Amino acid sequence: MRLLLIEDDTELVARLIPALHRAGYSVEHAANGIDGAFLGEEEPFEAVILDLGLPGKPGLQVLGQWRQKGLTMPVLILTARDAWHERVDGLKAGADDYLGKPFHIEELLARLEALIRRHFGRADNLLQHGDVTLDVDKQAVTNRAGEVIELTKIEYRLLHYLMMNPSKIVSKSELSERIYEEEHIKDSNVIEVYVNRLRQRLGKDFIETRRGQGYRLKE
Questions:
Q1: Burial level of 219, CB count in 10 A (0-12/13-18/19+)?
Q2: Is residue 71 within 8 Å of residue 119, measured between CB atoms?
Q3: pLDDT exceeds 60 at position 91
Q4: How far apart are CA 27 and CA 21, in angstroms?
């Protein structure tokens, strides 16, 4: 899952990004509202963490701009704890949830996961397709033989995205956008290597190749 973090507090960013990585997310960061608004409009993200007190362009304006343009990705806004009016204004502008500063990172991760689950119409952190189950909390998968397999960061991101979109044909370029970060080379040819690794663990027919289109979970 690919996230956009728009926050100008450098100390908070330094704590948040590693925690988000450990939770299995790839993260793009913008330190001001102008860059953040542009990234949100130009690139695909599964969710956004948006501070309201941003330089360049206020977070509330960024959010309103996105919603006016029809962008529907889940947005979690960060506000000062005592600024109840900011929370109200943010929710009215189209935010999906809010979190007051200071906060525990564990709560942010839980709220973020809940937002993404709701956006994809999922009820809990266990994703099931056929007789394969992905535990989002543990970043581990149970295969058809009942074996629990820990996944690498890239394997987890790839499988998570496919299982959140089980009936969708996903192109190599779309997968590379979801699993790599801005500073990494988005080599779509490497996707085939990771798909084959997952097939070895979950069954050769678990991920179907659609020639010239991409990949989809086998129905």
A1: exposed
A2: no
A3: yes
A4: 7
Question: In sequence order, what DSSP letters do the residues of the chain get, joined into one string?
Answer: -EEEEE---HHHHHHHHHHHHHTT-EEEEESSHHHHHHHHHHS--SEEEEESS-SSS-HHHHHHHHHHTT----EEEEEETT-HHHHHHHHHHT-SEEEEES--HHHHHHHHHHHHHHHTT--SSEEEETTEEEETTTTEEE-TTS-EEE--HHHHHHHHHHHHSTTS-B-HHHHHHHHS-TTS---GGGHHHHHHHHHHHH-TTSEEEETTTEEEE--
Encoded amino acid at 67, one letter? R
Q: What percent of the chain has pLDDT over 90?
A: 59
Distance CA 146, CA 131 (A): 9
Nearest to 40 by CA among 1, 14, 70: 70
Q: Which residues contact 132 (CB under 8 A, 6 or more apart)?
A: 141, 142, 143, 144, 202, 203, 206
The position carrying tokens 């009215």 is 92
> Among 3-17, 154-168, 175-189, where is mean pLDDT lowest?
175-189
- As a whole number of angstroms, the distance between CA 165 and CA 23 comes to 19
Cα distance between residue 200 and residue 194, in whole Å:
10
At 65, the pLDDT band (50, 70, 90 cuts) reads very high
> Tokens 């343009």 identify what position?
69
Dihedral (C-alpha) 28, 30, 31, 35: value to the nearest 10 degrees? 170
